[in-house]
Amino acid sequence: MASLYIHVPFCVRKCGYCDFYSGVAGDADIERYIAALDREFALRAPTGLAPETIFIGGGTPTRLSAPQLGALGAILKRYVDLRACTEFTCEINPGTLTPQKADALVAMGVNRASFGVQSFEPKYLQGLDRAHEAGVAPRALEIARAAGISRLNMDLMFAMPGQTLAEFESDIRQALNLGTQHISMYALTFEDDTPLTRQLKQGTIAEAPPELEEAMFQLAGRVAGEAGLARYEVSNFARPGAECAHNLVYWTCGDWHGFGAGAHGMTGGVVTRNVADFAAYERCLSEGNVPHVPDAPMAPAERAETLLLMGLRLTRGVELQRFRQFTGVDFHVACGEPAGRLIELGLLELTPAHVRATPRGMLVLDSVILELAMALGYSV
Ligand code: SF4
């Protein structure tokens, strides 16, 4: 019952911080892409898939028009059995949702919407080069709810250049006031070769000081927690039962199929990567070939590193039995020595069933994982 991820690599415009495989395209390109997706399903899933969770991400899936979303829905009807599917999420840029598109999503089976809000402050949306205006998020949520999509997530960003603690708190409170059951809050990262990173190098903007970023991280947990949304992953907060089941598959190194240009998948610990280039993806499929790029299978140590990298992000941590099953090695044998040091430092804890980062360990999670990964012979 592997999950299903579908990548839609089109955006209204490219955000200044983004290094995902996505770009601006016209309707003709989008229609060619949908036709290519159809061929990919025909080639890779001729007898159909029955996923428990589905996620359409991007990019901006709602860059597609309502008829284009309808065409995508028709493909899924042919190849995907939704009877076992409990969660079907679509990412939405708030400025792109219309009632017609929301209806097309519901007709496709979508029951959860993830809104890329990032901030309610116009100056930060402009600073990020986001395509939507500050006031559109409440209306977009209303449209989704009116169409029948009741499970809602909002993505917020913090540690943006110039952002104050009070401004971030105001963003969190506005998101909570809109009645969302789930919030993702990520610190802005400066990826290589993005316009924002070039501004940083030119000195026209400055990174948030580390103490402020840490204060924002703590604030996120406190304000969301007071409203009943617990931190269950380092950047994700949910009311009980509203956790994202699809992302939990990634964080536990479960099985999922990735469709679309640039999409990744993993089944039985074997990673598949689709070529991250629309022209190459389309060419491959028109020649009748699966659009995967060759990838060496993960060695046990690499599996262990991947599982720790993903699973320690969860507040419940990594299940020791899952570690053994996924890597073929006992956690105590693979990482016992550094784990002992980290436990003494109060950064890691072991229960009979799990290894997990402490709240202090969560603040320096990259270092905790690096320490464990070094024992495996890898550096993160
Ligand atoms: S909308 Fe998302 S995928 Fe598209 S450019 Fe912005 S951050 Fe990147």
Question: Can you describe what's shown?
Answer:
With 380 residues, the chain is α/β, with parallel strands linked by helices. It folds into two domains: 3-250, Alpha-Beta Horseshoe (pyruvate-formate lyase- activating enzyme); 300-375, Arc Repressor Mutant, subunit A (Orthogonal Bundle), CATH 1.10.10. 43% of the residues lie in helices and 18% in strands. The protein has 15 helices and 15 strands. A nine-stranded mixed sheet has the order 7-8-6-5-4-3-2-1-9, sandwiched between helices. A hairpin with a 2-residue loop joins strand 10 (264-267) and strand 11 (270-274). Helix 11 runs antiparallel to helix 15 (365-375) and helix 13 packs across helix 15. The chain is globular. The two termini are 30 Å apart. 42% of the residues are buried. The mean pLDDT is 95. The site of iron/sulfur cluster has 11 residues, from loops.
Can you summarize this structure?
The protein contains 15 helices and 15 strands. The protein has 380 residues and is of the alpha/beta class. The longest helix is centred in the first third of the chain and has 18 residues.
